[in-house]
Design goal:
Blueprint (H helix, E strand, L loop, with lengths): L6 H7 L4 E5 L5 H5 L3 E8 L7 E4 L2 E4 L4 E8 L4 H15 L15 H26 L1
Antiparallel strand pairs: 1-5, 2-5, 3-4
Length: about 130
């Protein structure tokens, strides 16, 4: 990724301070060790159906956000932040989107379930200790 055909090669070849790429979880910038920042670019179609990764986790859905990834060479964070800020201010892609799919699980539910699980485990260990004595 840092070779001539990679991210650093593109920055060098084009004599650029910053490179813009579509946001992707498997970003080549991670492998090259480049600083990066993702800026909202827009939202997907509102007429697609939700696709679930698990019963309670939406993998893809209507109005899903997507972004633009800005990246720069190591130690060029100032230029990176300047470019990302300028784009974000000019694009005004901060519009509110109506949620089409709403989660039925909140963090407080997960924490409560984990606490119950830990309490049950400690109670089980206490019973095991008592039976050993």
């Amino acid at each position: 990724m840092s070779a001539e055909g990679g991210v650093l090669g593109a920055l060098e070849r084009c004599n650029c301070d910053v490179l813009a790429l579509p946001t992707d979880s498997d970003s080549p910038t991670d492998l090259a060790g480049c600083p990066s920042i993702s800026i909202p670019l827009g939202f997907g179609s509102a007429d697609i159906s939700a696709e679930y990764a698990t019963p309670n986790l939406v993998d893809r859905g209507p109005n899903a956000p997507y972004g633009l990834l800005f990246t720069a060479r190591k130690w060029h964070e100032v230029q990176l932040l300047q470019a990302a800020y300028a784009y974000e201010q000019a694009s005004k892609t901060r519009d509110e989107v109506v949620l089409m799919v709403e989660s039925n699980i909140e963090l407080r539910h997960i924490i409560a379930a984990r606490k119950r699980s830990l309490q049950t485990e400690s109670q089980l260990l206490a019973v095991q200790e008592e039976t050993r004595e």
